[in-house]
């Protein structure tokens, strides 16, 4: 965890929107965090400080908010940035992984030449909820022969079980803050 002050400050600028997109859901809106220049700097700095000495070769950001986080973190760590895209968005040869959503399924892709065997990859997104997207992205990274150092996010919703699923697959998990409940 980053310094408690920074973690609490970051948490305090995340807007909670009740009953969106459906009744009973407490949506954690990180756009308020992204627009707050102080909080955004604290956020990026917290991730950079955590991973500075981890020997990270690449940062893989999950479409789309993982791009917002992953690019500046990769820049600061002097590594490459790898976009994990939704199906049909990459123009070259890809590998894909499907996962279940609450109502249906989705698929993420990586270019087949995005990573090399043995590379150490930080996987990042804004939120870990049920873990499906992060787990699918991690499987793609591993399929290309790279190693997931950690799955990181701004927010973990531990009640939804995603971080537990990732840990059960041997993937370390890190988040800046947690929110209980949906």
From TrEMBL:
Among the Pfam families in the record, one is Pribosyltran
SUPFAM superfamilies per UniProt = PRTase-like
Keyword presence, Cytoplasm: yes
Pathway involvement of the protein, from the record: Purine metabolism; AMP biosynthesis via salvage pathway; AMP from adenine: step 1/1
A GO cellular component annotation in the UniProt record: cytoplasm
Q: Which reaction does it catalyse?
A: AMP + diphosphate = 5-phospho-alpha-D-ribose 1-diphosphate + adenine
Q: Which UniProt keywords apply?
A: Cytoplasm, Glycosyltransferase, Purine salvage, Transferase
Q: What InterPro entries is this protein classified in?
A: Ade_phspho_trans, Adenine_PRTase, PRTase-like, PRTase_dom
Query: Is this entry keyworded NADP?
Result: no
Looking up Gene3D superfamilies in the UniProt record yields: 3.40.50.2020
Q: Please give the family membership noted in the entry.
A: Belongs to the purine/pyrimidine phosphoribosyltransferase family.
The annotated subunit structure for this chain is:
Homodimer.
What protein name is recorded for this chain?
Answer: Adenine phosphoribosyltransferase
Query: Where is the organism placed in the taxonomic lineage, from the top?
Result: Bacteria, Pseudomonadati, Pseudomonadota, Gammaproteobacteria, Oceanospirillales
Query: What gene name is given for the protein in this entry?
Result: apt
């Amino acid at each position: 965890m980053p310094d408690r002050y920074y973690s609490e400050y970051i948490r305090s600028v995340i807007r909670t929107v009740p009953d969106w997109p459906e009744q009973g859901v407490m949506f954690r809106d990180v756009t308020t965090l992204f627009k707050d220049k102080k909080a955004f700097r604290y956020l990026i700095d917290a991730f950079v400080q955590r991973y500075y000495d981890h020997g990270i070769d690449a940062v893989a950001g999950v479409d789309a908010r993982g791009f917002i986080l992953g690019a500046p973190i990769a820049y600061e760590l002097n590594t490459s940035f790898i976009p994990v895209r939704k199906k049909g968005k990459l123009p070259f040869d890809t590998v894909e992984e499907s996962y279940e959503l609450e109502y249906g399924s989705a698929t993420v892709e990586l270019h087949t030449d995005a990573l090399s065997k043995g590379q150490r990859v930080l996987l990042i997104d804004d939120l870990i909820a049920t873990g499906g997207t992060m787990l699918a992205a991690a499987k793609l990274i591993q399929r290309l022969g790279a190693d997931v150092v950690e799955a990181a996010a701004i927010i973990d919703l531990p009640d939804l079980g995603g971080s537990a699923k990732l840990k059960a697959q041997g993937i370390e998990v890190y988040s800046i803050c947690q929110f209980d409940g949906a």
